[in-house]
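Predicting holo structure, G3I bound.
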Amino acid sequence: MRNATWKAASRAALALTGAGALAAGMAMVLVAPAAAGTTLGASAAEKGRYFGAAVAAYKLSDSAYTTILNREFNSVTPENEMKIDATEPQQGQFSYGQADQIVNHARSRGMSVRGHTLAWHSQQPGWMQNMSGSALRQAMLNHVTQVATHFRGQVVAWDVVNEAFADGSSGARRDSNLQRTGNDWIEAAFRAARAADSGAKLCYNDYNTDNWSHAKTQAVYAMVRDFKQRGVPIDCVGFQSHFNSGSPYPSNYRTTLSSFAALGVDVQITELDIEGASAATYRSVVEDCLAVARCNGVTVWGIRDSDSWRASQTPLLFTSGGAKKPAYDAVLAALNNGTTPTDPPTTPPPTTPPPGPGGCTAAVAVNQWTGGFVATVKVTAGSSAITSWTVTLTLPLGSTVTNAWNANRSGDTGTTNWTNVAYNGRVGAGQSTEFGFQANGTAGGLTPTCAAG
Ligand code: G3I
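Done. Tokens:
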């Protein structure tokens, strides 16, 4: 399952659901699949992605709510019902009623389910809040094991650990009772989840990790890189992406997604909402996901504005009355027009005009750590649009490129040449695009040059 595309995964879920529902004697709900291009879920599926929503069990009796849910979405995340306080209200006594209700609603309609969340400092039941040390560590691991086992085969991805890093510039772990059980609590949770459900993708999920230059983003990135290097079982990173005036959509969001993906994990946008629901910003978020091959899909954190945890910010795709907002149209258009890096071009490549008077320039930003670095290179067109570009960059002795994204390269050491890939050669006058690479060694002062055409 972990290597299957989401399109294949949701087909498999539908088939499994049919068998399971019949075996259990449940009534099958047969819903004609929506035509591609007319709903969020169908359009996302055409791109090999899902489009999901956070769902509250108590709203499943609201037909205005379920009408939109069933029509538009092909993935569901229980908003609160799989959290620790809901699933283990008393130690050792598990309660799955509301979570099962959501899972059954989703799977009987061919929607996949994201599990949220197995280990978190927040929404702990009272008994857990009062625990510490090895007793808490054991209780946490038992919780992960029991819950992941209960939902085995029904959940395609788990937010195994949620929000374990501090905000601000420290790059430190968040202080919590779980953190105080030892720094290895996160990897212990991932190992327990893998042992309980080897078929689900295991994600680390957090907020304020959208801006590539922020310390929190870099700290999570370093943890994921370390986990991949040491074989800790992690498959994906969730970006909550709650955007508002204090924490706006960053222009380097695509760089963040592609940089994490280059570590060898999937990326998922897990709790999207945008204060004021700017259509342009929603569109950009979806385009960014479509531009990153390992971005599996997008989940919005609620359906109508009135369903949002931040209802007064009207951050979602449907009005409180259930009408589609301009942001909905923008998202659907982005899903229908978007291409993925692996898609063949839909139109013949344009003939290359002579280089415009402005040509292009390149600038590099480096994130260095002991023994390696990530370089993000920004290519900016001059006073005319360009249709292709080549960046030349000389690496210091001892530095070797290990992987790269959003560009083709020749050379791993010394003088390296980088050219655009199919989807980022065209850059409007004065506009920019970015590519990046990871390398061993020390970056030193990199001075890229750029040639257009
Ligand atoms: O169900 C009770 C109800 O019986 C009671 O009368 C009422 C009184 O306050 O509370 C109700 O529970 C509330 C629950 O939402 C259901 O509406 C809780 O108080 C409230 O704390 C809880 O808030 C949830 C929040 O997580 C808690 O941290 C939000 O719904 C949920 O959207 C939000 O989701 C989180 C993600 O899990 C992680 N990322 C951030 C995101 C937004 O905060």
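Residues 79-80, 122-123, 162, 207, 240, 271, 309 surround G3I (CB under 6 Å).
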